[in-house]
Amino acid sequence: MNSHLRSTAGRRTLGLRGLLGVGILLLAAPTLPLLAAEKKTTAGSNDETASRAAFLEAYKVLMNPRCMNCHPAGNQPLQGDDSHIHTQNVQRGHDGKGLYGMKCANCHQEKNVPGEHMPPGNPKWHLPTEEMPLVFQGKSPAELATQLKDPKLNGGKTLDQILKHVTSDELVLAGWDPGDGRTKPPLSHDEFAAKMKEWIEKGAAIPE
Predict the structure, then answer these.
(1) What is Dmax (Cα atoms) for the chain?
(2) What is the mean pLDDT of residues 127-153?
């Protein structure tokens, strides 16, 4: 083969190799965004899984008598570790502070009354209002998480405000100082606040 033919054949070979290379890149290129999207989806899924798990831990506190007793399904607060209906026929009232002469503050003073099973106290002692009762009693994890996320159901709060409420509100903190003869929630307050924070920061996912 003379030099001219060898040169032409070489150029054809290089051309074919180039075309094959471009074809491989074109075939691979669409998969790159898909791989990135798959990675992103996996990360999001992991966050949602962690978020749901965190809420399920916090749910144990929200359904504990120290929280749930002030978030009843009806208009009467609950009492005791068995969450029985409050005696003396105490009612919520429109503002959550009791009805007529049966005001919460009549028995619930600013501090716990000394003695076993005596009334616990707090300057802000009250139930949620009649207009926005914020029921916990009987709610599944999914129902309660949905309620806490929705400003129309949670008293007009953002998730950041919900987190601030459970982290620093003195009436929430009173749940860990319930007075003699009462059990405390299953998590410490710091653990509970951390789980609520994790639930919110990882997407406030609704448990299945």
Answers:
(1) 116
(2) 97
